[in-house]
Structure formats: C-alpha cells, structure tokens
Known about the structure:
Blueprint: E1 12-21, H1 25-33, E2 47-52, E3 61-69, E4 72-84, E5 89-97, E6 104-113, E7 116-125, H2 133-162
Antiparallel strand pairs: 1-7, 2-3, 3-4, 4-5, 5-6, 6-7
Amino acid sequence: MDEEGEERKPKWEGKATTKLRGPTPQQVWPLFQDFCTFHNWLPSIDTCRLIDGVHGQPGLIRYCASTVDPSSIKWCHEKLIAMDPMERWLSYEVVDNNMGFKRYLSTIKVIETEGGCHVEWSFAADPVEGWRFEDLLSYVEMSLKGMGENIEKALAAEEEASA
C-alpha cells in the first residue's frame, strides 16, 4: 500500500505463450505443479529448491539461481501464492532477490488446445532498474520457449522409453 493507504498496481504487465505439440495438459501440468523443479525445464536456471514450506502448498518458498559467470550468481526467492490443479495454474511472487526486482507477480497456466496444449506465463512487475519493459518481456518469452522445448523433449523421451 502507498502512503495514502491505497494498493499500488505494478506498472509493467506482460504475457507470453508457447504451444506444445503432442503433450497433453495432463502430462505437462505435473511438471509445473512441482514448484521446486523449474531448473529441469527453464534453461537459464541452474538450481531450484525448497527453502521453506510444504510442497504444493501456498506459502512455499523456493530458491532459484543461475550462474552468470564463475564469480556472479543471480538468485531469487519465490513464494507460491496460489495453485489450482484442476484448472492447471499457479501464481507466485518474488520475495527477495539480487536482480533488482521490487515487486514481481507471475501466473503460469497450462491450457488445453487441439492436438496438445499451450503454456501461458503472465507477469506484473514494478519497473526494474537497469531494465526496460521489453527486456523483461523478451526474457519471459525466450524462457517460456526454452521451457516448452525442454518439456516436449523430456516427454517424448519418456514415451519412447516406455514403448
């Protein structure tokens, strides 16, 4: 809330979508539902682990980090705000980080489509010092594209192994 007692709305809002051909929402959702395994799917993340709370429950806080170079690690703590396994979506917020985020809220949805599904990643954030809105949107778009490719490969390999 601001000084007048009114809740501030983030100034940056964006959304990215990627289409997964073949995998069903029922196959894809469990990969997102496990909130502490994003490093398996998100190409820019080296580690993602539980630091507080209960898996799958709002309030869970995860630590995510990526190594920029041997002497620099970018990290954040992200809190699971809500999750709906039936509708296949989750929302989280950044609660601490060294990347300049003051306020960042995000929702990821897995949506059924003909012949597969698509994943939607939306965000609302206060401007980040040293970034432009386009930088953040591009990061989300490229990250989601990479996640989609990694998920498709993993599920195809899983199907092949079980055939």
